[in-house]
Amino acid sequence: MIPPLALSLGEPAGIGPEIVARAWTASRDGGPVFVVVGDAVLLEAIGAPVAVVSEPAEATSVFRRAVPVIHLPTATAVTPGRPDAANAPCVADWIARAVDLAMDGRAAGVVTGPIAKAPLYAAGFPFPGHTEFIADLTGDLPYDGTRGPVMMLTARDLRVTLVTIHAPLSDVPELVTRDRVIRTARVTHEALRRDFGISHPRLALAGLNPHAGEGGSIGLEEIEVLRPAAAALRAEGIEITDPLPADTLFHEEARAGYDAAICLYHDQALIPVKTIDFWGGVNVTLGLPVVRTSPDHGTGFEIAGKGVARADSLIAATRLAAEMAARRRGLR
Questions:
Q1: Alpha helices, DSSP H, located in the chain
Q2: Which end of the chain has the lower number of beta carbons within 10 A, N or C?
Q3: How far is C-alpha 109 from the geometric centre of its chain's CA atoms?
Q4: DSSP states of 49-110 as a string?
Q5: CB 244 within 8 A of CB 212
Q6: What is the rounded distance in angstroms from the CA atom of residue 21 to the CA atom of residue 331?
Q7: pLDDT tens for residues 204-251?
Q8: DSSP symbol at 233
């Protein structure tokens, strides 16, 4: 057996409490077991049975009958759909506490509920998002491999990782450097072996320009940056293609030819993921000493409190985190 996962509740005014309750209902009999880090009152308010615990280990014995929660209350009352910056420090603390539990081995990994960045920024949160915050929290922990963070999105049989994430499209050509491509591919290759159990990963590299530059007639990035990066990676023993046209990279037959695609900007990666499985995609952070997954959607303020939020993505995120944690422990 592995320890329970630590699940941070996310933005309290969003759909986090609802999807956590639904994920528990889906997991209570067969697992994976998780302990929620957040305000127990928010779960009780939507009718979920709650058991307040002090340690993740206690979650196993109560999980079938109640949602185990390490109770850390919000600073002020919560109204669904109306985020309050006064609660932003609590949201950050829930994430940090979950990461701490994973770093000292009391939790098998971290699953993070969706957060709203605007109230966090208003409260002085200095990181672009979850990924960078968790990378900072784990920065002093030893890690055997190429250090991330690298963002991966998964949906059914598709895995994509990103060289750039939330960058304006006008900035992407300058940000797609040989070093960034090589680092992203190394982290992806190592994670596929360590966390996904793929002994000989096959990587596909997406081109930046239409038709992957058409031999230089529609841009030179493929010739000047991407092909040299792919050649350097192959010299290290990593199986990766030269840059391929992105418009033919994601159909079913193409997906069968690789284990992960290295994408160069946000929409190039997320459009195929959300087309293939809009409700069930999972966000994974690679290259860190702790396992971290998250649902691939936002806080859903417009539907918060209405009881209609779907938990497919969170359920998939908990299951993937448990599988990754088991592989890191040699149990799969």
A1: 16-27, 40-44, 59-62, 88-103, 117-122, 130-137, 172-175, 178-194, 221, 227-235, 252-255, 266-276, 312-328
A2: N
A3: 12
A4: -EEE-SSGGGHHHHTTTSEEEEE---SS--BTTB--GGGHHHHHHHHHHHHHHHHTTSSS-E
A5: yes
A6: 28
A7: 999 999 999 999 999 999 999 999 999 999 999 999 999 999 999 999
A8: H
Query: If you ran DSSP here, which 8-state letter would residue 33 be given?
Result: -
Which residues have C-beta within 8 Å of that of residue 39, sequence separation ≥ 6? 9, 12, 71, 72, 73, 74, 78, 90
What per-residue confidence (pLDDT) applies to 332? Answer: 67
Burial of residue 15 (CB within 10 Å: 0-12, 13-18, 19+) is buried
Angle CA(261)–CA(265)–CA(266) in degrees, nearest 5? 95
pLDDT in tens, 246-281: 999 999 999 999 999 999 999 999 999 999 999 999
CA nearest to 201, candidates 239, 174, 159? 239
| pLDDT tens-digit series, residues 130-146 | 899 999 999 999 999 99
Residue 44 has pLDDT above 70, yes or no: yes
Portion of the chain with pLDDT greater than 90, in percent: 97
Q: Rounded to whole angstroms, how far apart are CA atoms 148 and 290?
A: 11
Q: Are strands 292-295 and 282-286 parallel, antiparallel or unpaired?
A: antiparallel
Q: How far apart are CA 332 and CA 323, in angstroms?
A: 8
